Batch of 2 targets.
Target 1
Amino acid sequence: MRFRKKGQVGASVGAILTLIMGVGIAILVLIFTSVMSAQVYQNVESDINAITDNTTKGYVLSAIESGFQAYETTGNYMPILVLAVIITIVLGLILSVGRVGAIGGAGGGVL
């Protein structure tokens, strides 16, 4: 342990924390926008039903349905994004710890 330099892992940890925060913020944005969109739809549903032109009303309802399907599709990809973040974190930590390495702390790394 006497060969380990202080602060060697610091830059990688900062990058990993930024990555975790970014994914967390993306998930929160997805949740809040879908909840707020549903609330907005409930507030204007009576106005939409009051549209007398059936073609226009169909277009509006179709656009709303497409928007909610887009939220659902994006939400379905969240587990894949979280898995990618976990893999990135693990590999980043392994590689940063491996860099501490050999003689005099000027090591070669894991790979």
Target 2
Amino acid sequence: MKDALDVVMAWQLRNPDATDQAEAIEAVKVSRGMKNESELPSRLASHFLQLTIPPLFPQYKKNLQTLENARQRAPWRDAGNEHALDLLEWSIGVLSQKDIETQWRFLMPPILQTIDSLEVEWKAKGCHLLALLLQQMQHTTGQDAGLKPVMPSNPTEFLQRTGYHSLLADVLLPLLTHLPSLTPEDDSVILLSPVYSALISLAHFLPSEPRKTAFLSTLVRQAIVDPLTHLPNPCIYPSLSTLIISYLPPLLTALQLDAVKHLSVLLPLLSSILQDPFTLSHTQMVVATLVALRSVLANAWPRVAAHRRTILLGLCVLWSRCVEVRQRGEGVGQALGGGSGSGSRSERDEVEGQVRETGAMLDAVLRASEEAAAWEVEKRELVGVDKVYSQVFSLS
């Protein structure tokens, strides 16, 4: 470590005006050559975590109220200390699983202190660092920095033994309530994106399938259903709604067949979004909803037949509006006061393609179900009402 620090000091003397830490780190790598290139980053990260970062994140008395703690001086936010979070993020990215456990007592205080900040920007940064740390724990291999075999580490066992899984869940779940109108939509989007990433990563660190399934089901309710039903209308907050809906597919994919327990809540919710008169003015939201609907079909297919009319209503209403807009030669947003031109027509084509893909998937699921014969009759009746639906559901 002394050699690395000597290189950093020499580099700083040669470059007195430089402020980019990445350049100093690269200089250390070059000075040691390729042989030890893998070892140096983790040693340098340990130095940063133990000596450089802790003074910038002082620990105050635990008996202070949360608001009082948040108002205490935070040196890491002072001018000139902007590098603190950059160093922390870089350090997380180069540590192995074994190193993460060793440095855990230095990693957690700054991350949790950042999440406890009053400002949404810093909360989001802290959640991003936590998500990055959990993903690093999930992806690192059983090799140390010198490429020598080590005893495999079990991050699931580590988080359970230390109690940090429950602690981190308790920290993250309340952040899902930062929603309009108390929180501006832009701030909600900034904060919730890393919160979702961290929670989904946390779900992988549970010791048994029943516990993992229960945690994922909790996320479906608290992270997807509750926020969407809290909003007076998803179309009023399209960016936030798009973000929330986009995290439903990974949750359902992790749940697999256990997703069926959420059909009665999810399908009416998704269908209502497709039926909204203003849905076509928010292309990304409607596309995210259709992708989420296909995820429901893929993972909960054994019980989809019982809910097919709910799905059909949403798809048919949306397709009718797409056809109406196309017949007028407009883009999806033009008739509703949005933009016009080739870009909007391209968005219209994208939505139509997504509807056809979803309709084809629903058709395939139902034709393979016990309701196949009834479904063929219903399709013919539907096309008899309006032939445009034949473009969504093929007749055998």
